[in-house]
Design brief:
The protein contains eight helices and eight strands, in the order βαβαβαβαβαβαββαα. The protein is of the alpha/beta class and 209 residues long. Strands 1-2-3-4-5-6-7-8 form an eight-stranded parallel barrel, surrounded by six helices. Helix 6 links the parallel strand 6 and strand 7. The two termini are 23 Å apart.
């Protein structure tokens, strides 16, 4: 079993930040207790993505936090990141596993129990389920009910995280859901103090358990 903790799964968004500010905010979030960090870049060239991933990886290593790359197997391999996260329209999990081998973390997005079971069967190590609330980070948001989230938790033996518009003020709906952790983007990335935001969100989730 791979050793990783999804309690506070931070997904980055560099939109609107200089690289220096982005890296600074990323490190502040890690100081605040982020346990898994996913670099998500939809608009960079491959070279730009690799260059940024190398810089982020240097920071995550300092805090002993695994770096997960969104979508891109090639970037994972280029920077020797700890894993990848795959959406429903990305490379199938079983093919990614064949390419990356058993040592890498492969996470998958699931919005239904059948999707969750398929991802697990194909070799996923963890699942992101949502969106629980509407989110500003994606144009197309399909909401997932907390009941479906609970059903997915019961259906698979791997860690399941809730994602989508979550912050310290609206997390109570996740009580007794059985999830392993929460995925957060804007509530940390856009916070005045990313370190404090991470600390508060992590504590809020731990208080639910």
């Amino acid at each position: 079993m791979k050793n990783f903790d999804t309690t506070l799964y931070f997904i980055t968004d560099s939109t609107g930040f200089s690289e220096e500010e982005f890296l600074c905010r990323t490190e502040q979030a890690l100081k605040g207790g982020v346990t898994l960090l996913q670099l998500r870049e939809k608009n960079k060239t491959t070279r730009e993505y690799i260059a940024l991933a190398q810089k982020v990886h240097e920071i995550t290593k300092k805090y002993n936090v695994p770096l997960i790359i969104d979508d891109r197997i090639d970037v994972v391999m280029a920077v020797d990141a700890e894993g990848v996260h795959l959406g429903q329209s990305d490379m199938p999990v079983d093919i990614a596993r064949r390419i990356l081998g058993e040592g890498k973390i492969i996470g998958a997005t699931a919005k239904t129990v059948p999707q969750a079971l398929q991802a697990y069967k194909n070799g996923a190590d963890n699942l992101g389920v949502g969106a629980i609330y509407p989110t500003t980070t994606k144009v197309k948001t399909v909401l997932t009910s907390v009941d479906t989230l609970k059903d997915i938790v019961k259906a698979v033996p791997i860690p399941v995280n809730a994602i989508g518009g979550l912050n310290k003020n609206n997390m109570s709906v996740l009580e007794d859901s059985g999830i392993a952790g929460v995925c957060v983007v804007s509530a940390i990335m856009k916070a005045d103090n990313p370190q404090k935001a991470a600390e508060e969100i992590k504590q809020c989730f731990l208080n639910l358990k």
